[in-house]
Amino acid sequence: MRIVGFIFLIAALANSAFPAEPGTGSVCIAPADERPIQASAPGLFCDSEKLSLRIDNQQAVPWPLKGSVKVATLDPTIRHRVVVYCAGKAQQSFTFHFSEFKTGELCLFLNGLYKTAQLWEAKGCPWCKCK
């Protein structure tokens, strides 16, 4: 009986450590703040209207200022690269793999104070409003 319980425990831990990858992944891009936060130094960071981003080899698109934008049908089996641009020049970049998350629905947003791009699971991001 103890062996069955041990096998069940190992199976449960393995399932939570390695989440199942969905058929496709998506990234919801939350809108950037149009007004700078008063606590950040003026002129230190890129103005929101000059921001754009690119995922993998897709064409760079302006960072949304009103409403969220969904990038769907991303391959969950490969590593993806996100590049954030300011006035056409690369400012930040990072890579991610959907297996690093529990779900295939992610939220990309800018930390308002430092304007650093962050990627979280969409269910923990009420500011991402993709359908």
CATH topology-level fold name: Immunoglobulin-like
Main beta-sheet annotation: 4 strands, mixed
Instruction: Please write the CATH class name.
Output: Mainly Beta
Approximate strand percentage: 25-35%
- Helical content band: 10-25%
Radius of gyration: 18 Å
Task: Write out key terms for the chains shown.
mainly beta; 4-stranded antiparallel sheet; globular; 131 residues; 1 helix; Immunoglobulin-like
SSE map:
Blueprint: H1 2-17, E1 25-29, E2 51-55, E3 61-62, E4 69-74, E5 80-86, E6 89-96, E7 105-110, E8 117-121
Parallel strand pairs: 1-7
Antiparallel strand pairs: 1-4, 2-3, 2-5, 5-6, 7-8
Structural account:
- The chain is mostly beta strands and 131 residues long.
- The chain has one domain: Immunoglobulin-like, CATH 2.60.40.
- The protein contains 1 helix and 8 strands; from the N terminus they run αββββββββ.
- Strands 4-1-7-8 form a 4-stranded mixed beta sheet, with no helix packed on it.
- It is globular and about 35 Å long.
Quick gist of this model?
Helix content is 12%, strand content 34%. With 131 residues, it is mainly beta.
